[in-house]
Write a structure and sequence with these properties.
Chain A is α+β, with helices and mostly antiparallel strands and 216 residues long. Chain A is 40% helix and 17% strand. Chain A has a domain of 111 residues: Alpha-Beta Plaits (2-Layer Sandwich), CATH 3.30.70.3270. Chain A has a three-stranded mixed beta sheet with strand order 4-1-6. In chain A, strands 2-3-5 form a three-stranded antiparallel beta sheet. The termini of chain B are far apart.
């Protein structure tokens, strides 16, 4: 009969209307600035630079290799290399960035910079409230806006950060083992050279130990 | 001077407490030359203040109500529970740029919102808001209401034509087709009341409903079979006349953007909005007057009578507004062909049959039936239900059973 569907619909909307006042679970709205839902662990929005230790400038993992700058699809990363080198986590001397800027208004949160970085230096942040009233300087994140500690990384993406730490520790152990082997070899070579020198003190034609290829 | 001030407050008290001719005492203290003008002003001002205010409150109630029907919160930022939202909206509308298309007919484009608003406001002048509270109590009140009410169609077409925009024109043409189609059932459903009461004067129509049935229930026309059917036919036609969902085809945001309002912005757009809502209030108030006993309380009990009559009218108006919001939250928009089919194949025959039933009701008053009034009620109701069933069936889509030749 005509109107039975309308009656059914009216019943449904009436149930919603009164139900929304009595049953809290019907209202799914999260009133944003006051309330916010906890973010999922995989949330990513904008890249940041990871540093180890307490001093951001000293602990920055970035070595200014510029791979991310070249790979970035919208070209929002801008890097200038510094002339001064600094040791990385294994103690090896590396270049560091003098300028590292990312333009918030250009970045499209694709995470390609993170995928290509061989040094685990750039990661995705879950900070999403980046709006600003200053559309020129406010939207350009400088190096000192971008760097965040490894602890912060552990806080926002615990699983991923633990994995990165494990990998870095492995590499560091490998490097240390290699350094140890090298040092032993060097010591051995030095000892041999010393013994040789002691065995033949009268032969001045023997090259000095410093020139030994094992020590370089 | 002091006498005037005192009489002014006495007038307000008299108006609030339903007394006869509240203005007389105050007007008597004034210069006789000014009396007619002051009297007019005193009648107009409450209408011009209260109904636009009601429009503002209705917009926020509508947004909150629709939100709740969709399990949302609705606006809740401006003021307590968001109830100052309409002030913010109004200020926004006022500060917006008023854009007129280069090719538009500037004069018609400017006049159109006023051509909508003025007849609607005129229609408010004959409605009885309470006992002794009617701005102009003319003999042909109902006729006047429909006469000025149909002038709003002109505004819709003026707006659509003057904008020089195909969507505007399409919307206006749809609007005209719809409004003319539904004007007929609107008037015919109101005609039954005129037949029964024998008067076009709206105060007399309300008085005719003040008799009591059993249990002190007032004899609202709504409680008779023809009145019940007539009220719902009137309601549907009124929804269509005031361009509300499911009959918002002239505006149809998702099809023709906003129909005849496409090229309107800023305050002119707000005026259109105001006019549309005031039209809704006016036609709701007419429906209340014709079928729901106007300012009468539902029962003739003394303690209900102690409540001011205009408050009963206001409560009924809010109930009607809520019903319109409820309908809007429930039904999707009709197609143009469905709209026309509904008007001409269902509404018109139903209103015509309702007139016949009203006639039957009128002349069966003195019949000697076995169960008296109850039998009369049942006979009329059954006849109306039969007609409703037949016309309703004709409206249902007839779908043949689909047969599959190869997929069985």
């Amino acid at each position: 009969m005509l109107g039975s569907g309308i009656a059914k619909g009216l019943k449904e909307t009436a149930r919603n209307f009164f139900g929304s006042y009595t049953n809290e679970s019907r209202l799914v709205t999260v009133e944003y600035p006051e309330e916010r839902e906890p973010l999922k662990e995989a949330t990513r929005h904008f890249p940041f630079l990871v540093y180890d230790g307490l001093d951001p400038a000293a602990g920055l993992r970035c070595v200014a290799c510029q791979i991310c700058e070249k790979e970035c699809p919208p070209q929002c990363i801008y890097i200038i290399k510094d002339t001064v080198k600094k040791p990385d986590y294994t103690g090896k001397m590396q270049i560091q960035p003098k300028v590292f800027d990312i333009d918030v208004s250009v970045c499209m949160s694709c995470q390609i910079c993170v995928e290509v970085c061989p040094f685990e230096a750039i990661k995705m942040d879950n900070e999403y409230e980046l709006s600003t009233s200053d559309r020129f300087d406010g939207l350009l994140q400088r190096k000192d806006d971008l760097w965040k500690s490894n602890e912060y990384y552990h806080k926002i993406h615990p699983t991923e950060a633990a994995e990165v730490d494990r990998r870095l520790a492995e590499e560091k152990a490998k490097a240390e083992a290699k350094a140890k082997v090298d040092a032993e070899a060097k010591a051995k070579a030095a000892a041999e050279a010393k013994a040789k020198a002691a065995a033949a003190p009268a032969t001045p034609a023997t090259p000095p130990p410093a020139a030994n290829p094992a020590s370089s | 001077m002091i006498e005037s001030v005192i009489q002014f407050f006495v007038m307000i008290w008299k108006a609030v407490s339903d007394q006869l001719d509240p203005k007389a005492g105050f007007l008597a203290t004034l210069n006789p030359d000014f009396q007619p003008w002051v009297s007019v002003l005193l009648s107009i001002t409450p209408i011009l203040v209260l109904f636009p205010l009601l429009f503002g409150i209705t917009t926020i109630l509508e947004r909150k109500g629709l939100g709740r029907m969709q399990n949302r919160l609705g606006p809740n930022r401006v003021g307590p529970f968001g109830f100052a939202q309409f002030v913010a909206d109004g200020l926004k509308m006022l500060t917006k740029e008023d854009i007129v298309p280069r090719a538009a007919d500037r004069i018609l484009h400017f006049i159109a919102p006023f051509v909508l608003l003025v007849p609607v406001l005129l229609a408010f002048s004959v409605l009885p808001y309470g006992r002794n509270m009617v701005p102009i109590d003319i003999d042909g009140g109902l006729l006047f209401f429909f006469a000025v009410g149909s002038a709003t169609e002109l505004s819709v077409f003026m707006a659509g034509w003057s904008s020089r925009n195909k969507y505007s024109l399409l919307g206006a043409m749809r609007g005209i087709a719809q409004m003319i189609s539904y004007e007929l059932p609107l008037v015919l459903s109101a005609l039954t009341v005129v037949m029964m009461v024998g008067s076009l004067r709206l105060t007399q129509i309300v008085d005719a409903q003040s008799a009591t049935l059993w249990g002190g229930l007032h004899a609202w026309h709504f409680f008779t079979p023809w009145g019940f059917a007539g009220f719902f036919l009137f309601l549907v036609a009124a929804t269509a006349e005031s361009n509300r969902t499911p009959f918002d085809i002239p505006e149809a945001e998702s099809e023709i953007i906003a129909g005849y309002l496409v090229e309107y912005s800023g305050f002119k757009y707000a005026l259109f909005f105001l006019g549309e809502y005031l039209g809704l209030f006016a036609v709701s108030a007419l429906g209340i007057t014709l079928f729901l006993g106007g300012w009468l309380p539902p029962f003739a009990f003394p303690f209900l009578g102690a409540v001011p009559s205009w408050l009963w009218f206001g409560l009924k108006l809010f109930a009607m507004i809520f019903f319109f919001i409820w309908i809007r939250g429930t039904l999707p928009r009709l197609r143009t062909d469905q709209l026309m089919a509904f008007a001409w194949k269902f509404m018109l025959p139903m209103t015509l049959i309702n007139i016949l039933i009203a006639g039957l009701w009128r002349f069966s008053r003195d019949w000697q039936l076995p169960a008296g009034a109850v039998a009369r009620w049942i006979i009329c109701a059954v006849l109306l239900l039969g007609a409703y069933y037949i016309f309703g069936r004709a409206l249902q889509p007839r779908l043949a059973k689909r047969t599959y030749r190869y997929a069985e």
